[in-house]
Protein 1
Amino acid sequence: MFGGAFMMGAKDRLLPPAIPFRFFATAIVYHLVAWGVLLGAADGLPGYQGGLGPVLAALHLITLGVLAMTAMGAAYQMLPVATRRQLGPAWACSLSWWLFAPGVALLSFGLADGAPWALHGGATLAIAGLALFGGLVAGNLMRVGDLPAVTAPVWVALASLLAVLVLAGLLIADVGQGFLPDRASLAAAHGVLAGYGFMGMLVMGFSAVLVPMFVLAPAIPDAQAKPVAAIAAMALLSGAVGALSGWSWLAGAGAVLGLVAALLYLRLQRRVLAARMRKRLEPFFRLLKGGWVMLPLSLLAAGLLALGLWPEVSAPLWGLLLVVGWLLSFATGILQRIMPFLASMHSAARGGKPVLLSQLTPPPVLTLHAGAHGAALALLLASVVLDSPLIARLGALCGLAGALAFAVFAIIMMVRYRAHHRSQ
Amino acid sequence: MAEALDFPAPQDSPPVWLAAALDQTVLDVRSLLAAGSDPLGALMDAADGVAFGGFLVVDAPFNPSPLRRVLAARGFSSYGRRLGGGHWRIYFHLNGAADWEHDSDVAVMDEGAMLWHEQDGLHIDVRKLRPPQPMLAILRLIDGDAALQALVVHHERHPQYLLPELAERGWSVARISEEFQDVRLWLERKS
């Protein structure tokens, strides 16, 4: 019985495939919707300084609908394997999707339209879904004492998530009420903590295991990872408090510290790549590398914004480099790899012959997605610098084309997976 | 790679309790011996602190047979592994000396995995290694030796993430046995 109980733990680390794939499929749909909404609102992107409307809705369709949705699906599947501790129960993971997925739709509608019922209802659902996710991840991390390269940054991500949810609640409650003395400062702190804190630190934590696993290299040593997480945490604190208080020197110091942490993180990743067994990097890695280039650039833009330099350009530039350049490149790159990987893994877990990763992955479609994504980013950045709505529309069109290619990739993968499953 | 290692004759399987001993703190007495001190007192003190069902792990520059027999009389089973020319690791388990002495010559890979031969072929023990080290060790072994046709893996759980990588390399899992902290997989290269 003892042995049986142990083995149940060993097997249960693999969640039912419906759970992670539900999150991934939703992320793909929101990816399409986000670019579609941005295409319709592209004229408002150059010079955008914040405020309700379709640009803000498109931004949250990406940050919540694609980035957070992907992070949730990936964390539920990968974190228990990395930490070797249970995460769940499975029904709670499913419940977080039922709260979060419709919440994002409703909230995005509210952000575009300004309707209070949609804003409040959507925010309540989305906050509840993310809070449940945070609780589940925290429950897993509390049982781990031997993996600081993963757990230290993920704890910082969870602390950031808590702050993000509080700030988001305040910002939503303020709509129509106007009780916040400086709404723009609160929104800036919300952006810093959501982008670099919640998502960025999750990326840092997962990178410590996922990237070595994908390229077949030794994991990042704890002793090297911990100081990077500590510097990043100080950067977040400086950046968020600086943005909230309006002390530009503190926000600027946060950007500089963030740049130091980012460069140290990138140096660790470069060492992983240098020690890898898999000499030929797979196509998905183009997006990861692109994201890594954009991360320090986004921090440079953040520094300009913190110092109040060219805000009409540096504000939208920062948002684009952070959200589309760094995080969306990284998240879709990871999705390109883990969706076929998990499909192959689950086909093997059924006991039959596993479907090969190479059979599930159509490289030309992935190339099309990566190319369109890169073109979209370049055009959107150019539109901001040149203050050109036409270029912004072209950029959003490229983004939509990339999102379509990504959806086609997912459909091809599922068709091939089902065909393999039927042949068993 | 496996052929390049100088393996002794096939041996018995390690004891079942070994998995639980792998993450114990190691008492290394090599420096004491190198300095001319007798570590017996420290070892006995450490053994006194072990409760029934507990473990003591000792690193020594040779196979400490006298110590193993002394502790066997006090109820300890032991399993010794020669990790290198002058480096033995002895795992003691206070279980009434039910299986009191086993030895094994092993090779240790960079990832920390242990390799040895048994009657049914090459074995690799990746238990207690942190991800992705187990996958890395197994794939390095498979990729590094085209002549390797079979491999027995000792894992602490089902290595789900390994399966897609094995399939890509033309390997499959022929059989699995599940014991407490020892999920054993017989891997085969497909013809």
Protein 2
Amino acid sequence: MTTRIIAISVLLFLPLPIVIVVLSSFTSAGYLSFPIKGLSLRWYGEFLGSADWLRVLGTSALLAFIGATVSTAASFAAAWAVVRHRIRFGATYETILLTPLIFPHAAIGVIMIVTLSSVGWLGTFTGLVLVHCILTIPYAYRPVAAALRKADPALEEAAASLGARPWRTFWQVSLPAVRPGLVTSLLFSFIISFDEVTVTMFLVGPFVMTLPVQVFSEVLESASPVIAAVSATLVLFTTVMVFLLDRVIGIQFFVERD
Amino acid sequence: MPIQDSADYILQIENVTKTFAGSKAVDNVDLNVRRGEFVTLLGPSGCGKSTLLRMIAGFEVPTSGRISMRGQDMSNRPAYEREIGMVFQNLALFPHMNVYDNVAFGLRARNRLDELDRKVRDMLSLVGLEGFETRRTGQISGGQRQRVALARSLVTSPDLLLLDEPLSALDLKLRRQLQIELKRIQQEIGITFIFVTHDQEEALSMSDRVAVMNKGSVEQFGTAIETYHFPKTEFVARFVGETNLLRGVVSERSSDGAVICLDDCDTQVSVLTGTEVAAKGDRVAVSIRPEYVVLGSPDKHPVSAQITSHSFSGATVTYALNSVAGPLLAQVPFLPDKGHPLPKGQAVSVGWPADSVTLIPE
């Protein structure tokens, strides 16, 4: 009984900050506060009416889209080599791909400042794309590798025995067989990239800014409830993505071991 | 056999060897298959039969030797240019396509789009799956999946179909039913089947010729009747059906047979078949199928034995016997009025017709 109470309290406590942020975004007051004073949608109006906010929202969305696509394509190619062609040192290679997960983000940020400035990409969109690919590859690699391990290699032999050339086999058999894995990889890396703050902070500049980093710097300067409105929108967006993911293929696809 | 033109053979396998990491999976195999034949590659798991089939399909490249089809060398042809059909052990149906699209795949892949719909529907009706077009492959039974796999491989009208243990996952009854159906379809459309199995009954009942494989080599290639009644090696005798193997020495050798001394010449066995490979004094084995062993036999060389156990299987009863020549199995008609089953320990004299004995060199 006691454990049950603890479990329920934890489950209620975990999403509490999110609930507070979402609630405080509906305040009519001119400053961030909780409990809220008066109900209003003015801060959503402020967010969606601001060219600056919409510009960084667009940047973040485009960045996440390109990053997720490139990461997923690269992960597919890597997983194909490791799983299908059983290349030498495949396991080591997989570990290296997953290192951005455990490497301290502050360190990655510093390393990337040095690396990007040496090629003149610091503070550019291209630089952010490159870094977001590195950060999202661990999330993109696992689902696509798991899907490839599950897919039956005899399918490709069956296609060949039916007269399909390698290109047709790839597009009509190999790729559809791992489609759930590819969709999971795309959505997950999109979410990771869209929400990424810690490394991106080091790399933004006057010409490029992402939504989460903008939220962070606003919060340092002011306590305008527009931040809560932006955050609530991000929460809603991420929830919708995860919900979609679960409906399309089931969340356990990402969680289970490969 | 008269010398045949190579054009009579749809498939010629010459001195084919396949080595994996230093060990020979297939060892110097020669095999010629005629058009329209039903040939089975029979052997235990690991004997190389699947590897041989995969080389014919073009999924593995022989380490040495040559595989030709329709008189043309196929060594450098990829699988998709070999114009064969194949049914896989796990079927390998495309999970993201429905039954119709699975069957249509081969026609689309080869860009044969004329009358595609008619051909797909004809093939579905040949295998008895009309009305299943829009089903997903996960929504149909094992036997139906089997039929989809067969229809998919036959729709392009290949003249050679390879089948890799396609029935092994099915239960016995369904398996028998599909065996008969496979044979009917093979005869109806007149194509060559190369069928891989480890089930000797399946091999005997379906095939025109059986290639019995062991440790990468073909031990015997002949009709089902030849491999059962005239096994050329001990492995074939034991693997294809049950048999009694008695060891001895050739004591007499004449133009129409031989006499083998068993057990220091206390017992002698006359052999009429397979004797050309043995000379007087050779150590040999003789194979006698249990169904030829007669109890209370009037044969000229009766062997005395004692019953150690029996197992009843309906129409017949199989006795395990301890004889002076070694342990023997006798499968006899079950006749209650003759006192069957005979009690354990009873002494009997056993014999067999001389023409049922086959000599096997050691």
